[in-house]
Amino acid sequence: MTELKNLKNISLFGNQLTGVIPQALGINSSLVSIDFTNNSFSGEIPPHICAGRELRVLNLGHNLLHGSVPSKVGNCSSLVRLILGPNNLTGELPEFANNSSLIYMDLSLNRLNGTIPRSLGNCVNLTTIKWSRNKLFGPIPRVIGNLANLQVLNLSYNGLTGQLPQQISRCSKIYLLDLGFNNLNGSIPSGLTNLTLLSRLKLQGNQFSGGIPDFFPKFTSLLELQLGGNTLGGTIPSSLGSLRSLQIALNLSSNELTGEVPFQLGSLNSLQRLDLSLNNLTGSLSSLVGLSSLLEVNVSFNHFMGPVPEKWMKLLDSSPNSFLGNPGLCISCRAGDSSCVKSTALNFCGSTSGNKKGFSKIHAILLVLGSSFICFLVCLALGCVLLRLKKAEAEKMPSLHQGSSFLLNKVMEVTENLNEKYELGRGAQGTVYKASVSPENVYAVKKLIFDDQQGSNSSMLREIQTLGKIRHRNLVKLVDFWLRKDYGLILYEFMEGGSLHHVLHEMKPAPVLEWHIRYRIALGTAQGLAYLHEDCNPSILHRDIKPKNILLDSDMEPHIADFGIAKIMDQISSASHSTAVMGTIGYFSPETAFCTRKSKESDVYSYGVVLLELLTRKKALDEAFQENIDIVGWVCSTLHSTNDMEAVIDPDLMDEIVASVQLQEEVDGVLLLAFRCVSKVASERPTMRDVVKELTGMKSNAGGMLKEARHRSSGNVGK
Fold first, then answer.
1. pLDDT of residue 577
2. Known active-site residue 690
3. Which CATH number fits domain 389-494: 3.20.20.120, 3.40.1350.10, 3.30.200.20, 3.30.360.10?
4. CATH number for the 500-719 domain, one of 3.40.50.10090, 3.40.50.300, 1.10.510.10, 3.40.190.10?
5. Could you tell me the end-to-end alpha-carbon distance of the chain, in angstroms, rounded to an integer?
6. Catalytic annotation, pick one of 178, 544, 603, 630
7. Tens digit of pLDDT for each residue in 392-413?
8. Which 3 state secondary structure label does DSSP give 364?
9. Residue 130 has pLDDT above 50, yes or no
10. For 238-353, CATH number?
11. Alpha-carbon span 557 to 500, nearest angstrom
12. Cα angle at 277 between 273 and 283, to 5 degrees?
């Protein structure tokens, strides 16, 4: 290899190669690109690897290299991308005397020590610095302000000291700033106000003092705010309630905060993780009931009082330790209620520890025996009543179930008895009409046709009643329903933006869909599906996920429609001895061909197809594909043959992301996630909860994954 004088590119990534990289590499050739990622190379980095002065890409990450970073690598003026982590590299950072071409530098997960050299200020075109998990110490130099193009700065898990320099205010393009787990001190500088593009700010695990600044509302795109583990005092500013974009986490734990939680925090209805633990906060938790998207919460070891909000009972059951250390906190329900069975971490409101001690075993036994006898009598009476009701129901089914007859009359009136001119669309499960009852009350009416012999029944009634109770910001709200003998009407909230299918494939002229909109649609759809799969009891399978069943509101926020309807129609088909498979061709998982029984994994596969449609703007079965080829097969074969993401990504999207490292990494990550979702093997697909976690974490962690996606494209994917 070292004798090949015309050698320009070496790509050996993703193998199991071992041994030492030849130390003469680079001396006799003008190398342009070297990629040895994901091997087991040991030894040191060849000292003359940049000798040809044409090297643009040096990627030696994910190996076992040791020794220091050669000084000539630091002074390699042609370098554009430098990735040396993770390895076992030691020594100090090299000087960066002449690196104006350098755009991306990742030295994370090594054992590099020493201070950050002032010569870093010469790398004026840097967009990404990832130096986390090393042993760097000393202050962050003021020359950081020279890096006006910086978008990602991750210096977390080092030993940096001193104050955060005000000069960072010049880095106005930063969207990820992670300085967590160092020894930085002083107040949080006002210079951060210039970083208006911030989406993730992580300052946890330092020694920042003073109060929480009032300028955070200027960060209108902020998804994550980590301030835990400092010595911040004072009260929580009410202005944090203006951070409506917060989604991944708000962490204020392990500080010295006092006072009550401002009610404005209850407006953060997209927030998924909240940590207020280990402070001196007081008052009740009632101000936080508006946090409708919470997956995790920790309020332990404060001075909160009063009942845990009823909507938080699942959170209490899943993580009782997150509520400990608040003597005045209690559960506002009677012992024995189904919602309190698992909640043993807190007392019931109104009870005292003294009463518990005075309650003898004999009293408990007598109470249990008495309660059991009463329960027996109640169950006996209920059984008799239910038996009579069942008999009466069998004798005669009512002609109309549920719903307001007044609203039904209005719907029929404004649609002229469901005249076809009000029709929005037709599908295998029924016809949808638009009903404008008033300017403020516009509905979508779905008409389901039942088999003449089967008709509506009590099982169907219970199913729809259950669906009507489900509420989530990414699910279309079922407002009302009516069941007749031969048909049913389901009333949904109307979505102004139409279906995702219409926006992607039918609108003329086709609207430009920026990446942030596509990402929001991908994440919102995943959140809605995860809620159906993981938070509903019993779990609800959609069984027909596709762009036509993803509706968009005026803000392009996605809402899943028709969840649970496939099961209802399937029950009718089963009763009529039909073996039809519910779903849509192009979205079926491979196992559906052998088994008509749907599963969560089937929904995940369909969701993966939707992701591919979002990225490519091709239909699941597109006219551009060869016969018998679907979108999964087309993307896999095209990527495998061209090794070029541009060959499959929507050209409009490519035009947007070509100049942004951040956006390219996010698109790479979503493409890889789509491949995992459409894996041939159902057990290898992620759960929808995992999908949500990956998408929310993708804003900073998606880089460098396209290569893995390309490998997967020729492997365990598709049909």
1. 38
2. no
3. 3.30.200.20
4. 1.10.510.10
5. 40
6. 544
7. 443 333 334 445 567 888 889 9
8. helix
9. yes
10. 3.80.10.10
11. 10
12. 100
